[in-house]
Design brief:
Number of domains: 1
Largest sheet: 8 strands, parallel, barrel
Helix content: 40-55%
CATH topology: TIM Barrel
Strand content: 5-15%
Radius of gyration: 17 Å
Order of helices and strands: EHEHEHEHEHHEHEHEHH
CATH class: Alpha Beta
Shape: globular
């Protein structure tokens, strides 16, 4: 059974966000050209943003591509809020902050970005919070003084994001179902990295899940990088992932 009956999901391909974790604008444009008709959005993270800058983000959004700006803002409330306004001015579809930055930081970002978008007639981006990175495990949490289990800490941070008025969280599919119960809203998004097809490898991810299991667990959008961008035939890789996702949906 699907985790939330009556939820109006986009098509399977629209739920795929391809991670443009490459070192140059040229390589990123090549991936966008090859995949733009096959997936729903593209993620621009720290590597590409540092290499190509906000001008590339503006080019991508002006070209009509949905962009998830994955810079994980984490600073004092005013700094993060104003960075969020600049992200909105770039036309991004979604950007993220670190939930560990706290409730005041997240609430300030939501209110400041909302006010700026209304004042400047901008489309308000989805603002989501990173909980615990899918590359982290209990040992790494303990190293920085967090004694809760990974699952418990994710839920603590997800609840804080919900109470702060954010649109969703970044979390492993392992926690998606419980986050969905916490939010009690079909509009709250769970965006899941660490997706590996059944035939794939984990690379540097530790809390991974297949596309079909992630969909069944309640993830809304799947962020997928190397299983697509590193494939010899990227179109075939996307089609295989879409088939996995549709199989899970059909079982519901």
């Amino acid at each position: 059974m699907p985790p939330l009956l009556g939820r109006n999901y986009p098509s399977a391909k629209e739920r795929i966000i391809v991670a443009l974790d490459v070192d140059s604008e040229r390589n990123a444009r090549s991936l966008i050209d090859e995949l733009s008709d096959s997936v729903g959005a593209f993620k621009i993270g720290l590597q590409l943003f540092t290499s190509a800058g906000p001008a590339f983000v503006r080019w991508a959004t002006d070209a009509g591509h949905r962009i998830f700006l994955d810079l994980k803002f984490h600073d004092i409330p005013n700094t993060v809020a104003m960075a969020g306004v600049e992200a909105a001015r770039l036309g991004v579809w979604m950007f993220n902050v670190h939930a560990l930055g706290g409730g005041e930081m997240m609430k300030r970002t939501v209110s400041t970005v909302s006010e700026a978008c209304e004042r400047e007639n901008l489309s308000k981006p989805k603002i989501i919070a990173v909980t615990i990175l899918t590359s982290s495990n209990a040992n790494e949490l303990h190293e920085v003084g967090i004694e809760q289990s990974v699952n418990d800490e994710v839920l603590i941070l997800a609840r804080l994001a919900i109470n702060s008025g954010l649109d969703g969280v970044v979390a492993s599919a392992h926690e998606a179902s419980r986050i969905r119960q916490l939010a009690n809203s079909k509009d709250f998004l769970v965006v899941t990295p660490g997706i590996r097809p059944a035939s794939g490898t984990n690379d540097d991810q530790k809390r991974v899940m297949t596309p079909s299991d992630a969909v069944s667990s309640g993830s809304d959008y799947l962020v997928i990088g190397r299983p697509i961008t590193g494939a010899d035939d990227k179109g075939d890789a996307v089609r295989a992932i879409v088939a996995e996702m549709e199989s899970a949906s059909n079982k519901g």
